[in-house]
């Protein structure tokens, strides 16, 4: 009986750690630009009921698509959204770039904004989607890409997201690799959500990034007490990640803490839903 109890506990632990993938369809998106042909994988999850629905594109971080992206897709579906989780790595045979050299990062800094626009074009082509109500979500490295895509000077008028949510983006990385010294100004409403205890992507850099728009309701930073990086992943136990890329030129590699925070997650869900209700034409 003791052995059986231990065996069942082990099985339960394994099941807990398995991805909670919603029922979605894996598709391959292709670029329509003849001078640069490439493809990117994505998971499409349809909203229920009669459309047109609002929609969301989800961009992963440097570890690729994980549980939290499927969790958020399920949450957004409950709110009436069609979602598209973009996998920028699998088509290129890459699992993660958290420990990758600068050359790999520079490649994806150029590539991933295009992935976001390809995803936008695809959703706008669907009859079930309201083309004027598409939100861009990004986490960590994907959050930095979200800021880039929504930045006023680089957003194409014919290819425009309606709003953006960036979870714990590396604003330092955005400044280093993407900003080229420019002041940040989003073309659409943006919210940055971060944990106050985040060691990997620090809120101070996002505060600096938004200093020029202090008090601007169009783009804001919200922080959560006691929350670390990855605070919204229900299956992320508290742990140290070793030898990952950090926000420092002097010490670019190091260890960081990550972990789930239930209260921060719930608060973030409420904040995201209120933000979407306030900034999209279809109330949810």
Structure notes:
The structure is a single chain. The protein has one domain: Alpha/Beta hydrolase fold, catalytic domain (Rossmann fold), CATH 3.40.50. It has helices at residues 2-17, 67-78, 102-124, 141-150, 171-179, 203-209, 262-279; strands at 25-30, 39-45, 53-59, 82-87, 129-139, 163-167, 190-195, 219-224, 239-245, 253-258. The strands form two sheets. Strands 1-2-4-3-5-6-7-8 form an eight-stranded mixed sheet, sandwiched between helices. It has a two-stranded antiparallel ribbon with strand order 9-10. With 284 residues, it is an alpha/beta fold. 33% of the residues lie in helices and 24% in strands. α3 packs across α4 and α4 packs across α5 (171-179). The chain is built from seven helices and ten strands.
Task: Briefly characterize the structure.
This protein has 284 residues and is of the alpha/beta class.
Task: Provide keyphrases for this structure.
284 residues; Rossmann fold; alpha/beta; 10 strands; 24% strand; single chain; two-stranded antiparallel ribbon
Q: What's the CATH H-level superfamily name?
A: Alpha/Beta hydrolase fold, catalytic domain
Rg for CA atoms: 19 Å
Give the overall shape, derived from the CA principal axes: globular
CATH architecture: 3-Layer(aba) Sandwich
Largest sheet: 8 strands, mixed
What portion of the residues fall into strands of 2 or more residues? 15-25%
For the terminal residues, how far apart are their CA atoms? 50 Å
């Amino acid at each position: 009986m003791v052995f059986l109890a231990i065996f069942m506990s082990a099985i339960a632990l394994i099941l807990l750690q398995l991805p909670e993938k919603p029922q979605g369809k894996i598709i391959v998106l292709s670029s329509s630009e003849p001078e640069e042909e490439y493809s990117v994988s994505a998971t499409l999850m349809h909203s229920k009921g009669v459309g047109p629905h609002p929609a969301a594109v989800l961009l992963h971080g440097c570890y690729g698509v994980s549980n939290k992206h499927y969790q958020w897709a399920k949450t957004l579906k409950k709110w009436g959204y069609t979602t598209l989780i973009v996998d920028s790595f699998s088509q290129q045979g890459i699992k993660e770039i958290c420990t990758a050299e600068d050359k790999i990062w520079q490649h994806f800094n150029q590539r991933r904004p295009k992935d976001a626009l390809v995803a936008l074009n695809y959703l706008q082509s669907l009859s079930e989607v309201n083309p004027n109500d598409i939100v861009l979500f990004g986490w960590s490295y994907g959050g930095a890409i979200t800021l880039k895509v929504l930045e006023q000077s680089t957003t194409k008028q014919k290819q425009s997201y309606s709003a953006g949510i960036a979870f714990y983006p590396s604003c330092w990385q955005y400044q280093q690799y993407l900003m080229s010294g420019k002041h940040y100004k989003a073309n659409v409403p943006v919210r940055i959500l971060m944990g106050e205890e985040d060691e990997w992507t620090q809120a101070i850099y996002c505060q600096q990034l938004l200093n020029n728009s202090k008090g601007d309701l169009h783009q804001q930073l919200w922080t959560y007490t006691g929350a670390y990086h990855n605070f919204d992943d229900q299956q992320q136990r508290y742990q140290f990640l070793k030898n990952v890329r950090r926000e420092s030129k002097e010490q670019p590699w190091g260890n960081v803490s990550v972990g789930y925070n239930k209260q921060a997650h719930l608060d973030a869900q409420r904040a995201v839903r209120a933000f979407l209700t306030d900034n999209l034409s279809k109330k949810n």
